[in-house]
Amino acid sequence: MTSSRTNSVHNSVDEDRDEYFDTTVRLRNPNLELLDQDILYHLGLGSESHDLVEMFGDIKFVCMAGTPKRCETFSHYIMKELGHKLPTGTRLQDICEYSYRYSMYKVGPVLSVSGYIRSEMSN
Question: Which of 15, 33, 60, 97 is the most buried (most CB within 10 A)?
């Protein structure tokens, strides 16, 4: 198996950048190496505060929705189609509820994400 890294073209002009033959560009930011965790600000998630592999490791399908309401409605539809039942007294949880930017719901192997960025005025 050939790594795309073996197909890299070293850009001597810019040491913070790797360019590849397939036109992929990887920017290197040395400041990121100083961080002890990955923080996904727009999603309200982090690698220390959430077990991201446990939460998303079984995802097989990602469906982009428009508005947060459409995202939630689609998740309820998928839940019904998959025959997934929530325990009594629980509800679907917006995983990105505290980000105030996106909505994200997970039902089994299906992740539904709103592509609609909520403004602070609509909350």
Answer: 97
CB 65 within 8 A of CB 113: yes
pLDDT tens digits along 47-84: 888 888 999 999 999 999 889 999 999 999 999 999 99
Question: Which residue in the block uniquely carries the two structure tokens 């070293």?
Answer: 10
Q: Contact 105/75 with Cβ under 8 angstroms? A: yes
Q: Structural domain boundaries of the chain?
A: 4-34, 39-122
> What's the rounded Cα separation, in Å, for the pair 69 and 120?
16
Burial state string for 49-69 with b = 16 or more CB within 10 A and e = fewer than 16: ebeeeeeeeeeeeeeebeebe
> Rounded distance, CA 121 to CA 123, Å?
6
